[in-house]
Amino acid sequence: MISWLLPQASTFASTIDGLVLLIAVIVGFWLIVAEVVLFGFIFKFRARDGIRGQYVSGEDKSQKQWVSYPHYAVVVFDIIIIAAALRVWNEVKVEVPPADEQIRIIAQQWSWTFVHAGPDGKLDTRDDIRTVDDMYVQRDRVYTFELHARDVVHSFSVPAFRLKQDAVPGRAIRGWFKPTLEGTFDIQCAEMCGMGHGLMAGRVHIGSAAQYAAWMTNLTKIGAAGTAMAPTLMADVAAHDHAGTAGGTR
Ligand SMILES: [Cu+2]
Question: Which of 167, 170, 202, 205 could form a disulfide with 133 if both were Cys (CB 3.0 to 4.6 A apart)?
Answer without folding.
Answer: 202
